[in-house]
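Researcher: Predict the fold of MFS transporter.
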Amino acid sequence: MHRLFGPYRSVFAIQGSRALFVVALLARIPGTAKGMLLTLHVVLDQQRGYGAAGVVGMALTLGFAIGSPIAGRMVDRHGLRPVLLVTGLAEALYWATAPSLPYPALVAATFAGGVVSVPVFPVIRQAVAAHVPGELRRQAFALDSMIVELAYMVGPAVAVVAVTGLHTATPSMFATAAMTLASMAGLWPLGRILTAGRAADLGAEPGSAESGPAGRKGKTARLPRGTWLNPTLVLVLAMCTAANLTLAGTEVSVVASLRQHGETQWAGLTIIAWCCASLVGGFWHGSTARPRRLPVLMLLLGLGTIPVGLVGGLGWQWTALALIPAGFVCAPTIASTAEALTAAVPASARGQAMGLQAAALTLGGSLGAPLAGSLIDSFSPVWGFAVTGVIGTVLAALALGHERWAATRAGRVLPGLIPAQLPPASDAPEARPRMSAKS
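Model: Structure tokens for MFS transporter follow.
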């Protein structure tokens, strides 16, 4: 048992880590409920169909995908706190006014609200990377991925209970405005963590100076984007997109498969079993001494998803069991993408990298559900599982091929695609502890 929990004890032994992960959970729950809340508002309060609700959800997703990299760049340039102040007030204003907007204005405002939304997910991952020394980042990112699973299990369910109990989404939308301000307040202390971590990392980078006072921009030598935005990073971002595309497609396909066989009432329990397998996998990823590389995890996720639809006719229990292999590598895959990005970029660009990861994950989720849905409508749920799984498999195979080619060409493995126990290319020596976040 000590071997299983020992690595996590080391993470929690770092001063401030427990508070960081509590904030990581509480600040994320409102964000996971936003899509469900807007769907119920459009359907119940505005008496429109699910297609209209999907347009609003797409506007939110598109806005978030555009805004996340911008917010990450602003954090790198100006520090966290000014970004939190602007985005927190702007997003709270959106949620406070959205219930009174007519549908066309709601779509436009939702897009704008997505662009200026508080960058909770990338900021927390950035803080984990800055707060935890390199040799413990795999465990820290595994913890963070498990926290994301828990947030997605809680947030949408709370939104459904609150809205259906009150028969309107308006009070919940006002509550979301208040929780946005609370999230801003909870994330505010992370500005000091990011500044301390950036100063420590930049101190080890040639030609760089330490950051200034907590929460403010320091005078740092920033590397040109072309020096770190390379094929390795693009492949990692592509695997982020493919991973979430596969997960979103799987979720839709599970519901469709069970509905096809008259077992819709078991969809929730089946998805919970899938999430539990992901939690177990995340725990394993952080505790094992021999973690799998990101392309291998992505390959297992894709291959494990492809055959799930074949057992749909045998009962929901078999579908739940068939989801376990792919579910087991869900959290490790997402954790490894954050770990790989942290290793592949300099500290001065970490905010942009985490923003790009959030955008890639958002893009994958927004593509996976409609892709699987169209395949299900045209053919059957079997194809929803198969095609989304094949996409993940192909991206993983490309990454493995690129890794082998680069290793042959340079005589070494690319740092962005290897396990995190090796020293990140742009970080300070790992023996020196420092303070920071986890797609």
